[in-house]
Structures are given as structure tokens and as C-alpha cells.
Amino acid sequence: MTGCYNYNELNDIAIISGLGIDMDNNNLKISALVANGQSLNSNSKEGNAQPTLITGTGKNFTEAIKDIESKSARELYIGHLNIVIINEKVAYERLFDIIDPLFRDPETLKKYYIILSKGTTSENILKTLSPLETLPAENTSLNIVTSKKNLGYSNEVFLSTFIYKILNKGLEPVLPTIILEGNIEEADNIDDLKASKVDTTLKMDSLALFKDYKLVGFATHDESKGINIINNEINTLTITNSCYKNKDKYIVTQIDDIESKIKIINKNKIEITVKSSGSINETNCNLDLQNDDVIKKINDTVKNNIKDIIYKGINKGKELDTDIFGFGNKIYKKYRKLDYDFKNLDIDVKTDVELKTKGSLETTLKEANNENK
User: Are 246 and 324 in contact (CB under 8 A)?
Assistant: First the structure.
């Protein structure tokens, strides 16, 4: 009945695909990546937009956004916001000042990624161009998805998920981190993309741990894998072990179908059971993979590897005193009280691994070569 009473013409708005949030002395500095900028040249295909980065500063989030609007000929529109990148200094000092206005804004669906920039500013991350994607924000978000799928130490977190974990008792959030490798000065060089090798690349890194609206530290790759295993946030895990008789040779296994279950024994004891299956991906060891005893030995070794990784994640959480696993939340739901000592919880880990396949080879090439001689 009302029709499109509040519609906006595309030519009148600046579509923001990504926001970067940094500190400028005591002020917030916000970088907005506008997706519908002017095309690179008149011969470019219709819709092939050159992204534009506009920055603004202010004592708070709203003032910084207003500063950006004063520099834009179009009205800012964040309904298609794809990613928000937060600098680690902001995460240490002023995270609540960012999360509150982002979550309060009614224009977005809250289903955009939130990520932490480590070792560089979020502005540098946003302006880093990629030969694979037109928009830097789209490139970063795809990097997040791919990394979660293929790397055990990264993760994908939406703003809604981050808020949920902050607001629930006995549960603290984590965020994936991203770093910049190469020459920062060449990050936004269009001509650099014409070369066969770019000077600047973005790379996903390990998890950042939070407590009470504040960044408290970073996990290592193995610690991040352990955290993701417990939280059922891991798709695949690659484990490398030295050969049993030759430490310079390796056997690589890929673990999939990882499922973790947490059982509350009492307020002081937790039991974690992890079941998984996998395959042998690579080996240059001189092993008879048709021998059941050899397979069992590899299986047992991988099982212990996974258990060690999980305990590394647990110990990192205890070291920083942040319950990123939600043990307290489960205790609260069971006993309706949150009177537990996270750092002194007795946590028992049980792992079970089944190596189902050996790839296209039943044995190793070295073993097959020896048999043929």
C-alpha cells in the first residue's frame, strides 16, 4: 500500500562494503570503503567499479562517520556492509565504543564479518588490492571463508555471533586476525596488479581472545586449532609427523569430520570427547601401509597429536583467564549458578581418530620400489 516511500536512487548513495577502525591519538579513525566509485576508464565494463577509501576522525563512532559524510558527495549506505576490520589498539582500549553503535544501527543485518588487524592498521588492510577480486572488502571476506575451510587456526565470526558470546554468561568470544605481508606502500597500487607477482598480500593469522569487551591476547596457530576443535569451528586439520626411524622424513595426515562434545561432570570437572576421521595425504617414509600394525601406530600418533593440540588451546584460555569454550555457560545452564573456577577446572580430553583412506596408493612409492627390485 505504501509503495517504495523510502527508496534511494543508486546514484545518490555511497554503498559501503567495508569499514576499518583505528585509533588517531585519542580519537577514532574510521575508513569507509565505497564500492560504487567511478570506473577506472570509460572502456571498462558496466558495473566494474573502482573502490574508494574515505576516512574520518572523531571522539566517538558517530562523529567519525559524520566526518566521512562531510567528505562524500553521496549519502553513506551500510546496508550492504560486508566486513568490519578493527585494529588491535582499538580492541584493547575502546571495543565497546565500536560494538555498541554497530549493533544499534537498524540499517544492517548484523550478518557481516568482524576481524582484527594485527601488526598494521585496518586502513592498510582495507586498501590492499588483490588481482583476484575487484573490491578489497570482498577479497578479505572470501579470505576468511577459505581460511576457515582449509586452515585449522582461523575462523569466521559475524557481528551477531560476537555480541551473542559477549552477552551470555560464562562465554567469551574470539576473533580471527589478518596480517599484511610485503610492501605496505604498494598495497593500493593498481599498476602492481598487472605484474605476475604482487608486492603486498593479506594473510589470515591465529585467533584473538577477548574478555569483558577487551582484547586480552593472541593464540598461536596450534592453540587456535585446539580452541576451534573444542568449539566445533574447524573443518579440516593437517598434522605432520616425522618418520619413526628417520626424523628428516615426514608423514602428513588430513583429519576431517571433527566432532567435539563437552560433558559437565560437575562444577569442577569437564570431559571433552573428540571423534574424527581422516586420510594419509603424503609420506616419504619407508613404511608398509598395508600392514595393520603400521596404520594403527600412525593412528595412535595422530590421536595423541590432536589431544596435545586441544590441551594447548585449553592452557591458553586458562593462561589469559577467559572462558572462550563456554564451559561456564554449560555449567550455568545445568546448575543455574555461575560459581565455577575456570582456571582450576579439571578437564579430561578423549580423542578417537579413524584413518579411512591412504589416497590413490595402497603403500608408499619407496616401499613399492623396493618390492619391485
Answer: no
As given in the structure block, the three cell numbers for residue 79 are 546496508
Give residues with Cβ within 8 angstroms of 325, minimum separation 6. 227, 230, 231, 262, 314, 317
**From first to last of its 373 residues, what are the pLDDT tens digits of the chain?**
667 766 777 777 888 989 999 999 999 999 999 886 554 444 444 445 567 899 999 999 999 999 999 998 888 888 888 999 999 999 999 999 999 999 988 877 788 999 999 999 999 998 887 665 667 777 888 888 888 888 889 999 999 999 999 999 999 999 999 998 876 665 555 555 555 566 678 889 999 999 998 999 999 999 999 999 999 999 899 999 988 777 788 899 999 889 999 999 999 999 999 999 999 888 888 888 888 888 889 899 999 999 999 999 999 999 999 999 999 999 999 999 888 999 999 999 999 998 877 654 555 555 555 554 4
Instruction: Give residues with Cβ within 8 angstroms of 182, minimum separation 6.
Output: 198, 199, 200, 201
Q: Kindly state the cell numbers that stand for 291.
A: 600392514
Residue 148: count other Cβ atoms within 10 Å of its Cβ. 21
Helix (H, G, I), strand (E, B) or coil at 292: helix
- Cα–Cα distance for residue pair 228/313, rounded to 1 Å: 8
DSSP letter string over 308-361? HHHHHHHHHHHHHT--TT-HHHHHHHHHS-----GGG-EEEEEEEEEEEEBTB-
Pick the closest to residue 237 from 248, 225, 227 (CA basis): 225
Give Cβ neighbours of residue 194 (< 8 Å, ≥ 6 apart).
none
